[in-house]
Design brief:
Oligomer: single chain
Helix content: 40-55%
Structural class: alpha+beta
Radius of gyration: 35 Å
Shape: elongated
Distance between the termini: 137 Å
Number of strands: 19
Length: 667
């Protein structure tokens, strides 16, 4: 009996403990459920909503870039793509196998995809294919919708209708870098296929062109398949950017330059509008907007004509005789009478050195009225020495040399306008007279870019401190430029000299005479030496440019304005290693200015020029095909170790500033 009683008591205790435990657990569960339902309910309802509803970005359409008349320079077109998100896709091998069943991808594409996955952060999208046709895009939407991390994307691709004619000016677009995303924290930067400005105006005006992303709320299954669209907020396209550039003039100028390594800039003297800024050769920005083939990139880097360099803003060149207007204005301001002159015998002695004129026989008596048309070096040596380097440098800066302009162009080169203070700061040495002689004719330490030379010409033509601009203001107001403070009679004398350079019988640029009735051109030729000439060569005779390798030939320059009676347009032309300004650069300036006044006449003259350039190109290609292939070195270094393939501005071997300047032709 006692045993039975003990068993009952033991069972009752166990039942009580077990029941109490179950009650405690039940109470805890009820309490937890109550807590989750009441206090954490909003949080979990939000999480549930996120699982059921996704917020998907709508990338903004990039703003157009148009010319001054509204003609498109950079536009967008629909682009169907397939993107992969590594942090969502899981097994890459399985994902690529699924993709191959729908869209053919080559072995090279697969290597590229795997390489991108390896080097990019996992949250950054990797492009599998772009520019899909509609059937392929539709198949990807249907057959890959159940696989996380594979996203068919309907986006817009940037298109540049005129390709290389505007490459250096507009730049191109490309995928954002991880560093840019970390800095800006903008989710649109990791959206598949989204592009931002990488160079030129595309880069400098990226914020205005980018626009604002939209979004759409969609209901999805657990596998991410879209069930229905709930709500959409449209994107806000980027602003349309209107440039001062004239598209037709720019394209004509690029065609006129052909295969030359050159720059042409045209500025409106009244408004400062840059109507043309061409740098050739160039690249196709439509290719740069995607992935540049390695072979093409190598060719662009190794090309001695530097197609990746914007010569108009980044190229630096000795201005040569185009600088003589600066020296002339400085001499007039210093009190040199226009009728004062020197006798040019073809040589100028200073100490034990001799500086030469381009005319070996000399020009005879030369005053300021004839010094510019004849481009007599001896005249500018004499009066440059008399007024001194500081007066010349001050006038050069007033005319726009040695400075950068407020333009949406990265990498502008300021150049050098040397004076006594500059040399003391740079080299810790005093300035000497020989350096003044070289600077007075645009050589020595002096270097400038084509944009500065165009501004210099516009200021001489107008007498005002013209400032260039590339973006048209919305109010289209004409800016008011301050006076340069140069007396009108001084400017008139120099303008007359530039008129005679082209239109007088003694001028060095008769090839630049305008074919347009009633329109005359005023200009100045320049030929800039880029190599040292040894004493032995001086004794045996200086080699003609045509007999030298291309890299050792002189640069050809020409600056001009038109019409001469009421200056409206200023132009600068620089042909790298173009031999002579009057012979090769001046005709290009003539044709470009002709297009502004009579486009039909200019186009008619372009036909034979392009035909000759094609024939010359074909001849060079036949010669290159017949030549033996270059020897391949036994040892190849990794491309990332190389230092000889960097794209840098053109460099010039400037000789001893005290050394005499050799004879050269401005014609």
């Amino acid at each position: 009996m006692s045993n039975e009683t003990n068993r009952q008591q033991s069972f009752s205790r166990r039942a009580f403990v077990l029941g109490g435990g179950m009650a405690a657990i039940g109470t805890a569960l009820i309490g937890r459920m109550t807590w989750l339902a009441i206090f954490d309910g909003d949080q979990y309802r939000l999480a549930s909503e996120k699982n059921r509803v996704q917020l998907r970005l709508i990338p903004p359409r990039r703003g157009w870039i148009v010319d001054r008349t509204g003609k498109p320079l950079a536009i967008n077109k629909p682009d169907y793509r397939l993107e992969l998100l590594p942090d969502q896709v899981g097994d890459i091998d399985i994902a690529l196998a699924r993709v191959r069943q729908v869209i053919p991808i080559s072995w090279d594409d697969e290597l590229r995809i795997r390489a991108d996955i390896a080097v990019q952060p996992s949250y950054m999208p990797v492009e599998i294919a772009r520019q899909l046709d509609w059937p392929a895009f539709a198949a990807a939407n249907v057959q890959l919708s159940d696989m996380s991390g594979l996203q068919p994307v309907r986006a817009f691709a940037r298109v540049y209708p005129d390709a290389d004619h505007f490459a250096h000016l507009l730049g191109y677009v490309g995928a954002p870098t991880p560093e840019q995303y970390k800095q800006q924290k903008d989710p649109v930067l990791i959206f598949p296929g989204f592009r931002i400005g990488k160079d030129g105006i595309e880069r400098s005006a990226d914020k205005a062109l980018r626009g604002t992303a939209g979004a759409r709320r969609v209901e999805v299954t657990a596998r991410g398949k879209v069930v229905r669209e709930l709500e959409t907020r449209s994107d806000t396209p980027g602003e349309t950017l209107k440039l001062t550039i004239d598209r037709d003039l720019q394209s004509y100028t690029a065609r006129r330059l052909g295969d030359n390594s050159a720059s042409v800039i045209v500025i409106d003297c009244e408004t400062g509008d840059v109507l043309t800024m061409v740098s050739m050769p160039a690249y196709d920005p439509n290719i740069f907007s995607t992935r540049v083939p390695s072979a093409l990139w190598k060719d662009l880097q190794e090309n001695d004509h530097t197609p990746l360099l914007n010569k108009s803003a980044m190229g630096l060149y000795p201005p040569g005789s185009t600088f003589k207007m600066v020296t002339a204005l400085a001499a007039l301001e210093a009190g040199i009478a226009p009728d004062s002159g020197v006798r040019c015998t073809g040589a100028y002695r200073l100490g034990n050195n001799t500086w030469h004129c381009h005319s070996r026989r000399g020009h005879g008596f030369v005053d300021m009225h004839t010094a510019l048309p004849k481009s007599c070096d001896i005249y500018f040596y004499a009066y440059g020495r008399e007024i001194g380097i500081d007066a010349i440098a001050d006038m050069a800066r007033r005319l726009g040399l040695g400075q950068k302009y407020d333009l949406p162009l990265a990498g502008q080169a300021a150049g050098i306008v040397p004076d006594t203070a500059w040399k003391q700061k740079r080299y810790g040495k005093d300035w000497n007279v020989g350096e003044t002689l070289n600077t007075s004719i645009g050589q020595g330490y002096l270097i400038a870019n084509p944009l500065q030379l165009a501004v210099m010409t516009a200021r001489i033509a107008s007498g005002r401190a013209v400032m260039p601009r590339l973006i048209l203001p919305q109010d289209k107001a004409t800016p008011q430029f301050a006076s340069l403070g140069i007396p009108d009679d001084h400017l008139a004398l120099v303008r007359q000299g530039m008129y005679d350079v082209v239109n007088a019988g003694i001028g060095t640029a008769r090839a630049a005479r305008s074919p347009v009735p009633g329109v005359t051109i005023a200009g100045k030729t320049g030929t800039a030496q880029v190599r040292r000439i040894s004493a032995a060569e001086r004794r045996s005779g200086v080699k003609r440019n045509e007999a030298l390798p291309w890299k050792q030939r002189d640069h050809a320059l020409f600056v001009a304005f038109a019409p001469t009676d009421s200056p409206r347009y200023a132009v600068s032309v620089i042909i790298e290693h173009g031999i002579a300004g009057g012979r090769y650069a001046a005709p290009i300036a003539r044709d470009v200015l002709t297009y502004l006044f009579e486009p039909e006449l200019a186009m008619k003259a372009l036909g034979p020029i392009e035909a000759k350039m094609r024939a010359d190109r074909d001849a060079r290609e036949r010669l290159a095909a017949a030549a033996p292939p270059p020897a391949v070195p036994d040892t190849m270094m990794p491309s990332w170790l190389r230092t000889d393939n960097l794209i840098l501005p053109p460099t010039f071997e400037i000789g001893d500033p005290d050394a005499p300047v050799e004879p050269r032709s401005d014609t």
